[in-house]
Design brief:
460 residues; alpha+beta; Chloramphenicol Acetyltransferase; 6-stranded mixed beta sheet; 4-stranded antiparallel beta sheet
Length: 460
């Protein structure tokens, strides 16, 4: 019996998902546990496995299309089974096509086509043709018919000449219907006829749906060249990935809601450097990031206001220290969470951070791996960065931006100038619940722990 397979909700906050890659094709035999597709959520790309066995009879959602969660993605059943009714049922409620309806419905103006313009036939239609046409400006034409009444002849004329019909003033009837003559007048008055474009550039502009009046020519006498068209195509708006959209929304929300303030200190990493060298002799490799994570986790246990969250007029202090470690990916940033980081030994912390980072880079993080964080570390130390400020993750009160350890001349306790590996860290903190003095004390507590050789000796 054929079965509809929905695209699952992989996180509590998910409303839409995007299938990144199909791992099966129609006609394939699948077993329970086989990966059907990769789903791009707002935080990661995750594998979705089949809970059923059978043949893939129909794939309903193409890769790359954002759809609501629980939309039917495919139908599985027995080879040759009639699924016409199921396919129709699965397609009926799908809201995604409605989002694109304006494009499909572009010809709708045909309803208003009844009053076809009386001046449609004049010879001037050929005149503008002599004036070298050129590219049109982006997506506006697709929605224009829904915004203003346009005669069918005017629409065709504007399309041929790569004109954004939405910019053409209408003079027809009481509703200001755009007629063919209005388009011709627009060509004359807008300076369109003065534009020049090479034939190759014209074809490229038509293919890319550009608008002539939006282009500036860099060729001889201002002629629009293929290079000009390619540049315009490159600058056209491109949709963000699901992950990028959520990152943008959440960080914008953070900056708008949370009054950030920043505290920076320089830390002498000599003690950490010496301890790492000692451990390497015993074939134990613990990264600088692990030492930083441990120092931050211990400091958070001492400063409950930093390990907290502000909701309205209330402060929620977190009983556990769940440390988020930001991991950079090609399409954004994810933050796997290390739970009870203050209670973990250095080697345990090292293994877990490495494991979560590997899962992040392979797209295997689950929503639970990235939930429940109480504070975040963003480390750009490997990128030769002197200092930077990070934006607080919503749901937390602070984030620590870690820069590179740079050999720097400093004055030691005896007054001698020596070279030390100095690392700047900047705390971004929510001023609604953390005062400047507490922020300074916290970041200096992190500094004190990282510079304390005895502390690290006690942990190994």
């Amino acid at each position: 019996m054929a079965t509809k397979i929905p695209i699952p909700r992989l996180g509590q906050s998910e409303e839409t998902v995007t299938i990144q890659t199909w791992k099966v094709k129609e006609g394939d035999m699948i077993k329970k546990g086989d990966v059907l597709f990769d789903v791009e959520t707002d935080k990661a790309v995750l594998d979705v496995e089949s809970q059923f066995e059978g043949t893939v009879l129909k794939i309903l959602v193409p890769a790359g299309k954002e759809v609501p969660v629980l939309t039917t993605g495919l139908i599985i059943g027995e080879a040759g089974e009639d699924i016409s009714a199921l396919a129709a049922e699965a397609a009926a409620p799908a809201p995604a096509p409605k989002a694109e309806a304006p494009k499909a419905a572009a010809p709708a103006p045909a309803k208003k086509a009844a009053p076809a313009p009386k001046k449609a036939a004049p010879a001037p239609a050929a005149a503008p043709a002599a004036a070298a046409p050129a590219p049109v400006a982006a997506p506006a034409p697709a929605v224009a018919p829904a915004k203003k009444p346009v005669s069918p002849r005017a629409k065709v004329f504007a399309k041929d000449y790569l004109i954004d019909i939405n910019k053409v003033p209408g003079t027809g009837g009481e509703v200001g219907r755009v007629t063919e003559q209005d388009v011709k007048d627009y060509l004359e008055n807008s300076g369109y006829n003065a534009k020049k474009i090479t034939p190759v550039a014209l074809n490229a502009a038509k293919e890319a749906n550009l608008e002539l009046l939006s282009l500036n020519g860099t060729g001889e006498s201002g002629r629009i060249t293929l290079a000009d068209v390619k540049e315009a195509v490159f600058e056209q708006p491109k949709p963000m990935s699901t992950m990028r959209k959520v990152i943008a929304r959440r960080l914008h929300e953070s900056k708008m809601v949370m009054p950030h303030f920043y505290v920076t200190v320089s830390i002498d990493m000599s003690a950490v450097k010496a301890k790492r060298a000692q451990l390497k002799k015993d074939n134990i490799n613990i990264s600088v990031n692990v030492f930083i994570a441990k120092a931050v986790a211990l400091a958070l246990a001492e400063f409950p206001n930093v390990n907290a969250e502000c909701i309205g007029d209330n402060v929620i202090h977190k009983a556990k220290v769940n440390l988020g470690i930001a991991v950079s990916l090609d399409n954004g940033l994810v933050v796997p969470v290390i739970r009870n980081a203050d209670k973990k030994a250095l080697d345990e912390l090292s293994d877990e951070i490495a494991e979560q980072a590997a899962k992040a880079r392979s797209g295997k993080l689950t929503p639970s791996d990235m939930s429940g964080g109480t504070f975040t570390i963003s480390n750009m130390g490997m990128m030769n960065v002197e200092s930077f400020c990070a934006i607080i993750n919503p749901g937390e009160a602070g984030i620590l931006a870690v820069s590179s350890a740079i050999p720097t001349p400093v004055v030691d306790k005896e007054g001698n100038i020596v070279v030390r590996d100095m690392m700047k860290v900047t705390l971004s903190v929510d001023h609604r619940i953390v005062d400047g003095s507490d922020g300074a004390k916290f970041v200096n507590a992190v500094k004190s722990k990282l510079e304390d050789a005895a502390l690290w000796d006690s942990m190994i």
